[in-house]
């Protein structure tokens, strides 16, 4: 027989709260890589190098040549809600940095062992310090360092056995990491990126700074992809409702792939938009004879007050004002481009 006594409600310990929250922000190794790279980009880096061991479960190491972290800030660096990027809520409306919540580094320390090495301009040496559960494990130690910051995340999910087990069985996280770095490299063409497995001689992603998105795609995705891309632009003119600008590179009728690649930036944030992706996929399926999936790189800019960046724990999605009319506009632009390219189809792949 079921007892009708109401259960007692109690307050969770902070350590439990923090670990649960961290598990939402850092869902898998690739989420940590994305956050660390965003921090390096926010730090005005021109070079970002990633080393990964065991799909990211043993080690994720991100080194940059950015502005570094002040010695005085090291004690609170990995506490939850400590940031140099946001002060008042209203800042969210105009924020240019990718980070704003001061949650990423803290989250990593609740589910992994984090070591930071950093040096700021004009200093003779850097500092190294390790963190656990939000706090410094010891005083920062002086050490030799080159320009910028290196963050090591070790033994990810050491205290979340179920998560660790599921990830160990699916060995595709390194692929996801390479994929996300490739996406960053296509858009942030002024930064050189590399990614390799620990101990490997060769990098699996290696981009050099260039001024052209097409060149970046060529070096990351290959000549055969870059050759079959065409430039696309669209814009909405009504400032009160659907003002936006879009620039991109999309595959033509010669391109053939089994899976769609969609690299989407909205106000310089790498995001996903299921509605837009679907709309583009539908246009390709309806316009092109082959059942080929498209390659799409697209950068959309909107007035910052039309974008809500704070809708997803991993910041993967943003919500847009007038999303429907923007999607429709882009869809019809692509449709007319494909129709005209299809009628002037070339066959350079066939001899
Ligand atoms: P957020 O990016 O939301 O501010 P994070 O937890 O990711 O929060 O980082 C906290 C702070 O640590 C940042 O605001 C930034 O000042 C500093 N920081 C993190 N990574 C770097 C880095 N690679 N270079 C310089 N500063 C960094
Ligand atoms: Mg951040």
Automatic annotation (TrEMBL):
Question: Which residues are in the DNA mismatch repair protein S5 domain?
Answer: 217-339
Q: List locations, semicolon-separated.
A: Nucleus
| The family this protein is said to belong to | Belongs to the DNA mismatch repair MutL/HexB family.
Record's protein name: DNA mismatch repair protein S5 domain-containing protein
- Taxonomic lineage of the native organism: Eukaryota, Viridiplantae, Streptophyta, Embryophyta, Tracheophyta
């Amino acid at each position: 027989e079921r007892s009708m006594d109401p259960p007692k409600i109690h307050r969770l310990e902070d350590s439990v709260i923090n670990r649960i929250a961290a598990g939402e922000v850092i869902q898998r190794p690739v989420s940590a890589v994305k956050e660390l790279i965003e921090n390096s980009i926010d730090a005005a880096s021109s070079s970002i190098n990633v080393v990964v061991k065991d799909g990211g479960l043993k080690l994720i190491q991100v080194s940059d040549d950015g502005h570094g972290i002040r010695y005085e800030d090291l004690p609170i660096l990995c506490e939850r809600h400590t940031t140099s990027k946001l002060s008042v809520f209203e800042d969210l409306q105009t924020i240019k940095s990718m980070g704003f919540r001061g949650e990423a580094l803290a989250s990593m320390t609740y589910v992994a062992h984090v070591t930071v090495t950093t040096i700021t301009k004009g200093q003779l040496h850097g500092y190294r310090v390790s963190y656990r559960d939000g706090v410094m494990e010891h005083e920062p130690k002086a050490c030799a360092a080159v320009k910028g910051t290196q963050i090591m995340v070790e033994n990810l999910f050491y205290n979340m056995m179920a998560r660790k087990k599921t990830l160990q069985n699916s060995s595709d996280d390194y692929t996801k990491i390479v994929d996300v770095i490739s996406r960053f490299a296509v858009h942030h063409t002024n930064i050189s990126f590399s990614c390799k497995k620990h101990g490997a001689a060769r990098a699996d992603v290696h981009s050099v700074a260039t001024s052209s998105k097409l060149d970046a795609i060529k070096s990351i995705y290959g000549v055969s992809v870059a050759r079959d891309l065409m430039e696309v632009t669209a814009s909405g003119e009504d400032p009160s409702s659907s003002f936006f600008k879009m620039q991109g590179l999309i595959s033509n009728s010669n391109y053939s792939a089994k899976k769609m690649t969609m690299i989407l930036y909205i106000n310089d944030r790498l995001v996903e938009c299921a509605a837009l992706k679907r709309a583009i996929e539908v246009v390709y399926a309806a316009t092109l004879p082959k059942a080929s999936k498209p390659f799409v790189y697209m950068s959309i800019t909107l007035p910052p007050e039309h974008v809500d960046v704070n809708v997803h724990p991993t910041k993967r999605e943003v919500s847009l004002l007038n999303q429907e009319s923007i999607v429709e506009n882009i869809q019809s632009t692509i449709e007319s481009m494909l129709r005209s390219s299809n009628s002037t189809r070339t066959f350079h792949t066939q001899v």
